[in-house]
Write a structure and sequence with these properties.
HMG_CoA_synthase_prok; alpha+beta; three-stranded mixed β-sheet; HMG_CoA_synt_C_dom; transferase; nine-stranded mixed β-sheet; Hydroxymethylglutaryl-CoA synthase; Peroxisomal Thiolase, Chain A, domain 1; binds 3-hydroxy-3-methylglutaryl-coenzyme A; 17 strands
Length: about 400
C-alpha cells in the first residue's frame, strides 16, 4: 500500500500588490524584485480574510469530492496563529461540516510545519488506511514597511487530502532532517510582523539544505539522478534557484544551466505572483509543478526541501502517480489567479494597516472577499466566521 497526496487545492486573496508599484514608490529598479528576487506580485488579505477563511476556501473542493465523513483528522499548519489556545482548524472543522469524531490540532515550526503535518498524516493513514487526513497550511506573511523583507510578503492556503493509494503523489518513507537553534527569522507573540536577519536566513537555508540532503542520502536508496524535479520552500523564487544550484554543485553533477533550471522552473509560477505564503508555499509550488509543467510527470520522482526558520529542515521524496492530471483543480486555480484585483499603493497601505481590534468591543468587518467563507465580526474577543 502506498500513502500520499490524493488531492490538492490552494486559495489566495483576490487582491495583490504589484512589486513594480513598490519599486516606483521606493525609487528602486523594478528588476531588483522581478529579476533579483524573482517576484512580481504579492497577495494581500482583505479585512474579512485570515488563515481560517483561506484554509476553508482551499479545502472546500476536497471535502466536496471526498465527503466530510471521510476525514478522521485535520492537521492545521500555520505561523500566523489567531489564538494562543484554540486551534484555527476547529473553526475550519465547523465551516466544512466535518464529523464530530474528527480530531483537530494546530502545528507550528515556521514554514516547516506543513511538512511535519504531511509526514504525521502519512503515519496516521498507514495505521488506519480507511481514514483520510486533511492537511491544511495557511499563512499571511508580513514584514515591516520599508524593510528588505517587505517585497517578500504574500498570503495563501493549501489543502491536501492524505490517503492510502493516493491519486497524485505517493510519499517515500525515507526523510533527511536537520535542526539547529538559530535566530534568522522569528516573530515574538506581541508582534504582528516578523523580524528577520535576511542575508543570514538565506545562508542558514542553504546550510540546512546541505545537511538535510546528506541525511537523506544516508537513509534513502535514491540518488540525485533519480529525482527529476525539485520543490523547494519558496520565500521568493530566486531562493529556490540558488538552492538548486547549490544542490547540483554539492552532488558534482554535470548539467547545463538550462537543465538545472528546467528541474525547478514549473514549481515557481504561482509563487511569483502570490508571494511567500510560509507553510503553504512549497505545496503551492507543488500545485504549480503538477498544473503548469508541459511534460507528463507520471512515475517521475520529485525531491522536496522544506525549510522553517529557527530552524528545522527536511528533505524527502515522492513519486507522481500515473493519471494524476485528471485529479487537479487547474482551471479553478487559474480562474482565481486571473480574477484578482490590483491594488494602488494607498489601497495596499490601507489593507496593511487595517486595524485588528483588541478592545473587546463589537466590530463588524466589511464584506470584501468574494470567497465562500469570511470573518464577519470580532465580538467580545470572539472571531465570528460565516459561510457566504
Ligand atoms: P535585499 O538585501 O534588499 O536584496 O533583500 P539584495 O540587495 O540582496 O538584492 C537581492 C538580489 O537582487 C541580489 O541578487 C541582487 O544582486 C539583485 P543575489 O546577489 O542574491 O543573486 N538585484 C538586482 N537584480 C537585477 N536588477 C537589479 C537588481 N538590484 C539588485 N536592478 C533579502 C534580500 C533576502 C534579504 C530580503 O528579501 C529579505 O529579508 N527577505 C525576507 C527573509 C527571507 O525571505 N529569507 C529567505 C530564507 S529564510 C526562509 O525561507 C524562511 C521564511 O520563509 C520564514 C519561515 O520559515 O517562517 C522567510
Amino acid at each position: 500500500m502506498s500513502v500520499g497526496i490524493d488531492e490538492i487545492s490552494f486559495y489566495t486573496s483576490s487582491y495583490y500588490f504589484d512589486l513594480r508599484t513598490l519599486a516606483e514608490i521606493q525609487e528602486t529598479d523594478p528588476d531588483k524584485y522581478y529579476v533579483g528576487i524573482g517576484q512580481e506580485k504579492m497577495g494581500m488579505a482583505a479585512p474579512d480574510e485570515d488563515i481560517v477563511t483561506m484554509a476553508a476556501n482551499a479545502a472546500l473542493p476536497l471535502i466536496e469530492n471526498a465527503g466530510s465523513d471521510a476525514v478522521g483528522t485535520l492537521l492545521f499548519a500555520t505561523e500566523t496563529g489567531i489564538d494562543q489556545s484554540k486551534a484555527a482548524g476547529v473553526y475550519v472543522h465547523r465551516l466544512l461540516g466535518l464529523g464530530a469524531n474528527c480530531r483537530v490540532v494546530e502545528l507550528k515550526q515556521a514554514c516547516y510545519s506543513a511538512t511535519a503535518a504531511l509526514q504525521m498524516a502519512c503515519a496516521l493513514v498507514a495505521r488506519q488506511p480507511q481514514r483520510k487526513v486533511l492537511v491544511i497550511a495557511s499563512d499571511v506573511a508580513r514584514y515591516d514597511l520599508n524593510t528588505p523583507g517587505e517585497a517578500t510578503q504574500g498570503c495563501g492556503a493549501v489543502a491536501m487530502m492524505i490517503s492510502a493509494n493516493p491519486r497524485l503523489v505517493s510519499i517515500d518513507p525515507e526523510v533527511g532532517n536537520y535542526t539547529e537553534d538559530v535566530m534568522d527569522f522569528w516573530r515574538p507573540n506581541y508582534r504582528t510582523t516578523a523580524l528577520v536577519d535576511g542575508k543570514y536566513s538565506t545562508k542558514i537555508y542553504l546550510k540546512s539544505l546541505k545537511k538535510a540532503w546528506e541525511n537523506f542520502s544516508e537513509v534513502s536508496p535514491l540518488s540525485f539522478g533519480d529525482l527529476s524535479r525539485f520543490c523547494y520552500h519558496l520565500p521568493f523564487s530566486r531562493m529556490a534557484q540558488k538552492a538548486h544550484q547549490h544542490l547540483v554543485k554539492m552532488n558534482k553533477v554535470v548539467m547545463t544551466p538550462e537543465q538545472v533550471e528546467e528541474q525547478i522552473e514549473p514549481t515557481l509560477s504561482y509563487n511569483r505572483i502570490i508571494g511567500n505564503s510560509y507553510t503553504a508555499s512549497m505545496y503551492i509550488g507543488l500545485c504549480s509543478l503538477l498544473e503548469t509543467c508541459q511534460d507528463n510527470l507520471a512515475d517521475q520522482r520529485i525531491g522536496f526541501f522544506s525549510y522553517g526558520s529557527g530552524s528545522v529542515a527536511e528533505f524527502y521524496s515522492g513519486r507522481v502517480v500515473p493519471g494524476y492530471e485528471q485529479h487537479l483543480h487547474t482551471a479553478k486555480h487559474r480562474e482565481m489567479l486571473d480574477n484578482r484585483q490590483s491594488l494602488s499603493y494607498d489601497e495596499y497601505l490601507n489593507l496593511y494597516r487595517y486595524p485588528n481590534p483588541t478592545d473587546g468591543g463589537e466590530h463588524e468587518l466589511p464584506h470584501v472577499t468574494p470567497g465562500r467563507f469570511r470573518l464577519a465580526a470580532i465580538t467580545h474577543h470572539k472571531r465570528e466566521y460565516v459561510t457566504c
